[in-house]
Amino acid sequence: MYRVILVDDEPEVRTGLIYKIDWNRLGFDVAGEAGNGREALALLESVSPHVMLTDIRMPTMSGLELLKQCEERYPALRTVVLSGHDEFDYVKTAMQCGARDYLLKPVVRLELANLLAKLKEELDAEAAAERERRARERERLQSLPRLREQLLLEWIHHREEEGRAVLLDEAERLGMRELLDAGGRLRFLCAEYRLPEGRLGVGTADSALFRLAFRMLCRELAEEEVSWSGRVTAITDRGHPRFVYFLVRSRDEEEEERTLRPLLDRLAHGVRSLLRAEVVVGIGASEEGGRHLRRAYLSALTAWSRSRPGAVSQTIGGTEEEADDALPAGFAELERRLVQSIENGDEAAFIRQLEAALAGGKLPLRHIAATAFRVALLLEQAARKHGVDAPETKEWMLPETLWRLSSPQDAKAYLSELAFRIAEGIRAGRATNGSEVVEAIRRDIEEGYMNELGLSMMAERYHLNLTYLSELFKKQLGVTFSDYVVQVRLRRAEELLRDESMRLSDIAELSGFANASYLSSVFKKRYGLSPSEYRSRLAEPNKSHADNR
């Protein structure tokens, strides 16, 4: 039932309205009566009605003053004016003050019933839109942790500073800008479960259900422990199904230590007692500030890569000496050149850069293993970025793979073959130029502009690297993803503004903008006019036509 209040200084008029029709049958309930505007304001505060029928001429506070206050304080309220025949000038003023309609006294039963039916239809549509909006918001909140994880992984895997502008824009939208910009200590843990032989039955090495159980245990550990609440984030990567990464943030070394030791103990205890499995954890070096997330992440993975094969719980790393000693100086620049040579399809350049990374075989064996591991990671990331299906890039997740690389020659042969396969896949992918994916995303925007739309959401939906998708979208359509979304929404808003009965807040909702003020800001920036000014321009030709008749 929708609530109605009746405002008139004549009690018999209010009584007549109450008994004139069956309010409940029409979907309304008379929630209260008031004899003047001041009483009505008090009633509005207490019963929160959906509709108000009010007289214009009343003592203490007139209907016009009441309407002005309602427009400011209760913009969603539907107001209807009760008017005598000699008050039509008042009616025009009332309509300018936000009244939705008017009824002439004495009120005719059929007219009142028709008006209420019209209002109920509007209120039903508004309620349906609100339910849909809340459902979308629930869906957005449910997907937010996954989208944030994906953005963190994109930030980690993206090496080039100049390409991070897109990621920072997306971080702003997902409420993560502060994390990426903030200072303070951070450290990654790389946790992998390992199953004792026969744990899942004879001939079963792993299962999706077990992977889910491991992820849920890690998430609950990160989110529910009060002592480190808000400082530990569990991150999962679809490409690394047996792993969970913990990002640990702290103000100083002492706080970090108070978090790390209990976290490691509870993780090991949970995996052993609840899952009856073993857990191998690589502890990365501490870094300062969100700008070094990638380095912290790679440090943890590199520590993990030194683990022994087999279902035995292990904790590796955690000392600054181990982190500093792992790779040759200048390796970050070598990484950049290695990836560039793969993406350019320059196999000879890749061989030269790989030989430089391996220092011509003169490095100690543990340095060669760490270098081979990092190059294998680079190749996996390149394959994922360009959508190349190369299962061999996942082999680094099996420690025995890298343990088999007992010499620089073995590492060079293994990594070169893998790199050439990925380079070929990138060439093949560029031949199709990604037009089908971009067209599918364009259709999603055109059909779903009212919903929450983000680049990270589309990257997740189409299983693409976020920065790669950003570049691809702009290359195909000539505009960025966010600009295209705004263009589509503005076109819809422009169409809706032609209906003078629609409020700006409704137009904002129906065209996908967060609120009316944001719509006004974007609209004026694009067209040089506010929405109300645009409406006035549209009305001028009609007015001139009417004046000439």
UniProtKB/TrEMBL annotation:
One Gene Ontology MF term: DNA-binding transcription factor activity
Pfam short name (any one): HTH_18
SMART domains: HTH_ARAC (SM00342), REC (SM00448)
Positions of the HTH araC/xylS-type domain: 435-537
Entry GO terms, CC: cytoplasm
UniProt cross-references to PROSITE patterns, sorted A to Z: HTH_ARAC_FAMILY_1, HTH_ARAC_FAMILY_2, RESPONSE_REGULATORY
Localization annotation: Cytoplasm
Positions carrying 4-aspartylphosphate: D55
Swiss-Prot/TrEMBL keywords: Coiled coil, Cytoplasm, DNA-binding, Phosphoprotein, Transcription, Transcription regulation, Two-component regulatory system
Sections of the chain in a coiled coil: 109-140
Domain Response regulatory: 3-120
Gene Ontology biological-process annotations: phosphorelay signal transduction system
Major location category of this protein: cytoplasm
Protein name, as recorded: Response regulator
